[in-house]
Amino acid sequence: MRIGFVTDEISADVEEALELGVSWGIYDFELRMLGERRVPQIEVGDIQRILVLQRKHGLRITALSPGVFKGTIHDEGRLRHELQEILPQTFQLARLFNSPTVLVFGFQRAAHDKPDDEKKIIAAFHHAAIAARQHGLRLAIENEPGFWCDTGANTARLLGRIASPRLRANWDPANVIGTNETPFPNGYEAIKSWISNVHVKDTRLGALIECVPVGEGRVDWRGQLQTLARDNLVKHITIETHCPPLRENSKKNLETVRALLAFAPDEV
């Protein structure tokens, strides 16, 4: 199972992040923030630099993360903008980089949500999945606390209702911390049939609270990584360090993940 990185978890300078990653033996990268800009609204010069390095080193751009569907389902203007502008632009960029996956989120919950709002969420995902299919791409929902798709079980249930082959899960066990679910093994067992992408980070309190190097938080990464290797659900995993200093902790996370994956799957 290959190991990749979100580039801005190494450096905000995408060229520096890619070159440093290659020096660590990494050839799989996810694009999210490039400097102050988030994909797809990034500088043309950055796009050209990525393409040059992609050809030079044989890099794989495994996913793009434009940050769509982070608002509530009630924000119709934002949703329309994301469906009509941000996602189509991201799909074009994904095709340019030969990237198969676009990451999306599962709509932030609001105090005035009603059970029927789930129908609107399903309709939005159907619309996005159809557009992804037209570009030969897939979407992967990232679970996050406070969202309709927060736990493995809730994300899997929604994916089951949508039932589109173009819509899968970006499983982030650390993002389950802060919910009532144990990410591994409980959340993983609930969502594993939907997983197409995996984020690796760790935390003591929650997704963006007290993030720590992998192995120092509450996620059972030894069990999770070795089970992922055994189950052979994905060909790569993506480190998303989230704890400064990023360069140093990204290198540390890489060493930890490599060590955990060194155990043969049949030893799990």
How are the SSEs ordered, and which strands pair?
Blueprint: E1 2-6, H1 14-23, E2 28-31, E3 33-34, E4 37-38, H2 44-57, E5 60-64, H3 76-97, E6 101-104, H4 117-134, E7 138-142, H5 152-162, E8 167-171, H6 183-191, E9 195-200, E10 202-206, E11 209-212, H7 221-231, E12 236-239, H8 246-261
CATH topology category name: TIM Barrel
Q: Figure out the total of helices.
A: 8
Mean pLDDT reading: 96
Residue fraction in strands: 15-25%
Rough outline: globular
For the secondary structure, the number of strands is 12
CATH superfamily: Divalent-metal-dependent TIM barrel enzymes
Identify the CATH architecture. Answer: Alpha-Beta Barrel
Order of helices and strands: EHEEEHEHEHEHEHEEEHEH
Which class in CATH terms?
Alpha Beta
> In this structure, how is the largest beta sheet organized?
8 strands, parallel, barrel
- What is the percent of helical residues? 40-55%
Give the termini distance in whole angstroms. 15 Å
* Integer-rounded radius of gyration: 18 Å
- Computed structural class: alpha/beta
Number of domains: 1
Molecular structure report:
The protein is of the alpha/beta class. The chain has one domain: Divalent-metal-dependent TIM barrel enzymes (TIM Barrel), CATH 3.20.20. Helices cover 41% and strands 19% of the residues. The chain contains eight helices and twelve strands. It has helices spanning 14-23, 44-57, 76-97, 117-134, 152-162, 183-191, 221-231, 246-261, and strands spanning 2-6, 28-31, 33-34, 37-38, 60-64, 101-104, 138-142, 167-171, 195-200, 202-206, 209-212, 236-239. The protein has an eight-stranded parallel beta barrel with strand order 1-2-5-6-7-8-9-12, surrounded by four helices. Helix 5 links the parallel strand 7 (138-142) and strand 8 (167-171). Helix 3 (76-97) runs parallel beside helix 4 and helix 5 (152-162) packs parallel to helix 6 (183-191). The two termini are 15 Å apart.
